[in-house]
Design goal:
Number of domains: 1
CATH superfamily: Aconitase, domain 4
Radius of gyration: 15 Å
Distance between the termini: 25 Å
CATH topology: Aconitase, domain 4
Largest sheet: 7 strands, mixed
Strand content: 15-25%
Number of helices: 7
CATH architecture: Alpha-Beta Barrel
Shape: globular
Helix content: 25-40%
Strand order of the largest sheet: 4-3-2-1-5-6-7
Length: 166
Amino acid sequence: MKGIRGRAFVFGDDINTDVMAPGLYFKAPMEEMARHCMEAVDPAFAKEVRPGDIVVAGRNFGIGSAREQAAMALTHLGVGAVLARSFGRIFYRNALNFGLPVLVFPETGLIRPGEVLTVDPVSGRIERPASGDSWVVQGLPAHMMEMVGAGGLMPWLKLRLAKEKK
């Protein structure tokens, strides 16, 4: 996976998984749940986000229940990456398992909604091309990005098993 380029959708602290995957839509198809992703904090998010756009948040992004649907809703909408000051532990792992790069970025407060960012998840380089600003955070290991690039854990395992059968 190469660099990700997209507009920033900025959120505050303590965005929980219930906001990303509202329980009211648990029995509905993922398309329906994704249409309601983040609506409690930004009713326009699911309508406006485009493939490659980047979610930027404060502390504890993804706290709350262990619902996998939170990461699934973001990937279904095409979110390219999530940058946050910190993550709920289970959400962090679920995001990677569903092919969504997540990076701890202490400077999220410097990013404004709508700004274009580029993110290289392996090197950890984050850039704001309009101003020339750049930051480097701890990137994801290349082997983890191989899994993310394959679409997540299950698609990656299927690829590995297929290679082993040859």
